[in-house]
Write a structure and sequence with these properties.
CATH architecture of the largest domain: 3-Layer(aba) Sandwich
Shape: globular
CATH class of the largest domain: Alpha Beta
Helix content: 25-40%
Number of domains: 2
CATH superfamily of the largest domain: Ribokinase
Order of helices and strands: HEEHHEEHEHEHEHEHEHEHHHEEEHHHH
Radius of gyration: 22 Å
Length: 387
């Protein structure tokens, strides 16, 4: 079979795969020695994990799903889903005519340290783009003037610093708690730094605060020193690590995380009782109860500094508007990737920077709401499932 696959590959003929390309594991996407790369794969019933997860997704080409009358009820007990636009569109909070900013939540973003003010600014701006009514950025006091210049629509909260460092210190805890009275949600981590006092502050906030919280970047890195802070947390938590941050949190090698992405995401969500967003090629969202959502949007243009900070803000913005952590995470991840797909469709696969996501997001969101995203633009990575 391997010789036959290699012979077909050398012919450079376009391949139509029936159900799944020969040589590809339907369960994991692993290439079992050698596999055919298809231009189109016609699969039966539902997509298979191996067609969605890398490296399998690079072998299926355009994926077509064909109904062969398998009873839909059989899917109810399957804990893995493919995120799809119609389901996610229904999650967007309504905005009645008589609404005011107080109806859409107040998000406190704790972010930034010396050299990393951009992360703080982008996450705050993204939360506003997602529809949060109010956003306040909590920032080390000596950096406040810089962020006042960077941000127009978001407010700032200057906070006490660790001695000799332009990073949040342990004495920031009380003003944060005072400020959070009647505030709905937090986002913690973009560009925050890993000073020991910052680490202690993050651990205390994550464990003690009742408000829903999304924890990203240095928020996750700080928790890696003492992951037990996550256990018994007083409120819902969404963690959004990339594979390197995930590896630090679990004490594993990054390669070990990447080799078992789905299993690692599911196990970690259950272990810590959090909603886990494992970023990377084929971002996964895992719930504490074992559910996993595979996100079909996004592309390699997102491999640029700051795009993760935008994602943190989007998820935080949806969380502030009252979405459940599972819903806020899935919607934020999908729209984040869709915005990148739209950029690539218009400008090509290179040149995307995080600010492009912020600028393009309103147009993409409007087209998403109206169901106007053309197939070819939603299908940048050949992962569009057509029934």
């Amino acid at each position: 079979m391997a010789a036959l696959i290699e012979r077909i590959t050398h012919l450079r003929a376009k391949v139509l795969a029936v159900d799944i390309p020969t040589g590809l594991s339907a369960d994991t996407g692993e290439v079992l020695g050698v596999a055919l790369k298809a231009a189109v794969t016609v699969t039966y019933g539902w997509p298979k994990l191996g067609q969605i997860l890398p490296p399998g997704r690079d072998y299926v080409g355009r994926l077509w799903q064909v109904d062969i009358s398998i009873p839909p009820d059989l899917a109810r007990d399957v804990p893995v889903e493919l995120a799809e636009a119609p389901d996610l569109r229904a999650l967007l909070p309504p905005r009645p005519f008589g609404s005011h900013k107080g109806n859409f939540g107040h998000l406190l973003v704790l972010a930034g340290s010396e050299g990393k003010t951009g992360a703080a600014a982008m996450s705050s701006a993204a939360a506003l783009r997602a529809g949060a009514g109010l956003v306040t950025l909590g920032i080390p006091a000596s950096l406040n003037d810089i962020l006042e210049m960077k941000l127009t629509e978001a407010m700032t909260l200057p906070l006490p610093e660790a001695p000799g460092a332009r990073a949040l210190g342990k004495t920031a805890l009380k003003p944060i708690l005072d400020f959070l009275d009647e505030k709905s949600t937090l986002a913690v981590g973009p560009g925050l730094g890993t000073h020991p006092e910052t680490r202690d502050l993050v651990c205390r906030l994550v464990h003690d605060l009742p408000q829903p919280m999304v924890v990203d970047a240095d928020g996750v890195n700080n928790l890696a020193a003492d992951p037990s802070c996550l256990k018994g947390a007083a409120g819902p938590r969404i963690l959004t690590p990339h594979p390197g941050e995930m590896a630090r949190l679990l004490g594993l090698a990054t390669a070990a995380v990447q080799a078992r992405r789905l299993e690692v995401a599911r196990e970690t969500a259950a272990r810590f009782g959090v909603t886990l967003v494992l970023k990377g090629a084929q971002t996964l969202v895992a719930a504490p109860d074992g559910r996993v959502s595979l996100n079909p949007t996004g592309n390699p243009a997102l491999a640029s500094g700051g795009t993760g900070d935008v994602l943190t803000g989007l998820i935080g913005g949806f969380l502030a508007q009252g979405l459940a952590p599972w819903d806020a995470a899935r919607l934020g991840v999908y729209l984040h990737g869709l915005t990148a797909d739209d950029f690539v469709a218009r400008h090509g696969p290179r040149g995307l920077i995080a600010g492009d996501l912020l600028r393009n997001f309103p147009d993409v969101l409007d087209e998403f709401i109206q169901g106007l995203i053309p197939l070819e633009e939603e299908d940048i990575c050949c992962m569009r499932v057509i029934s």
